[in-house]
Write a structure and sequence with these properties.
By secondary structure, this protein is of the alpha+beta class. It has a single domain, classed as Alpha-Beta Plaits (2-Layer Sandwich). The chain is built from four helices and four strands; from the N terminus they run αβαββααβ.
């Protein structure tokens, strides 16, 4: 399993001392959707990490198991995330690799991911 994280000591420093953005990639759990978590974790994410290089400060993958109410299905089949120092660092590393990274999506899912860029506050 691919798992990288930001040093926990960084999390609690004042915002002025560090900056980080998180690229969240969410895969909606809709009727007829398919998601191969084994492929995602063992092939796709390592390929993404390799292509993005050291500008990607961390990444992770999560599998949806339930919704907010008892017995409800998860809203998302899976979620992935990438951590960068800035939007510019993300764009500089992702842009040249976008075709290869996005071209691999059909190998593990039949849904279009929802992507959101976040400024990490804590």
């Amino acid at each position: 399993m691919v798992r990288a994280a930001v040093d926990s000591t960084v999390r609690f420093q004042r915002k002025e001392e560090w900056a980080m953005i998180k690229i969240s990639v969410l895969y909606p759990n809709t009727e007829g959707s398919k998601f191969d978590m084994d492929y995602y974790v063992n092939k796709h994410m390592p390929m993404v990490q390799s292509r993005l290089g050291s500008s990607c400060r961390g990444l992770g993958a999560e599998q949806g198991i339930a919704g907010g109410e008892p017995g409800a299905p998860p809203t998302y089949s899976a979620m992935g995330y990438l951590l960068f120092d800035s939007v510019e660092a993300f764009q500089a590393s992702f842009g040249p690799n976008a075709e290869a990274i996005m071209g691999d999506v059909p190998n593990y899912t039949n849904v279009s991911p929802v992507i959101q860029i976040n400024d990490v506050k804590l």
